[in-house]
């Protein structure tokens, strides 16, 4: 009997909260601090605002199910909402502490609405039932917030990794100088990750462009250590295998010294101290 009583009262509360879902959304948005310096909550775009309200309303439809569904089934269904919001572009551009702040505010809404429901049925529910509802809300929010943060961090990492790869690709562009000759101007520090991408991108770009000669300019690289020297050596060897002849420019004394110390043989690779010298030698520009 006690289990049936609790389930019955849970269903009553579920129906009460479900009927208030639209109110919950409007109250939440109207009390929202729209002065955030960035993120979805600061937007004045009507389309973004409408989407945000719909996302919040859908949240309520899912959360109310906590009172009538078994926990595992409840969380599995809620995961769909979590995944949608976690990879939503507007939320990916919103600082995580702003989003957690809104989870906390909505949680307070639910606790207040439970008080309202109890007030409407004064004396009908024992304290242990009321306490169980409050604990249920706190537990549901804890689970959902943790799941959201995990998924949001995952998709944010994916986004940042994609941006980083794009930056790395743009940092080693192959520029055609004529039908046969292209230029690879390297600028900035080269770490292991960038060196790997540089090797892959350069080979692909040279093959796609159909060039026979590639000028690799090192004048924009502040430091050439052992790893970088080896990567350049491997790049030149790989280019040779696809029929591209390399020329090195911007070769400073310390670069030459590093290559000699590591036993790297650049025999047969034309080297020049400046890019201008190489381009004159290849008749790309005049003296």
Keywords:
single chain, 287 residues, alpha/beta, Transcription Regulator spoIIAA, 2 domains, 5-stranded mixed sheet, 11 helices, 8% strand, disordered N terminus
Basic shape:
rod-shaped
- Fold-level CATH name of the largest domain: Globin-like
- Report the portion of residues in β strands: 5-15%
Share in helix: 55-70%
Q: Taking Cα atoms only, what radius of gyration do you get, to the nearest Å?
A: 31 Å
Mean pLDDT: 87
Low-confidence stretches: 1-8
Q: Whole-Å distance between the termini? A: 99 Å
Largest sheet: 5 strands, mixed
How many discrete structural domains?
2
Per DSSP E runs of 2 or more residues, the count of β-strands stands at 5
SSE topology:
Layout: H1 2-19, H2 21-30, H3 46-63, H4 71-86, H5 89-92, H6 96-120, H7 127-170, E1 175-176, E2 181-187, H8 192-209, E3 213-220, H9 226-241, E4 245-249, H10 253-261, E5 271-272, H11 275-281
Parallel strand pairs: 2-3, 3-4, 4-5
Antiparallel strand pairs: 1-2
Helix pairs in contact: 2-3, 3-4, 4-7, 6-7, 8-9
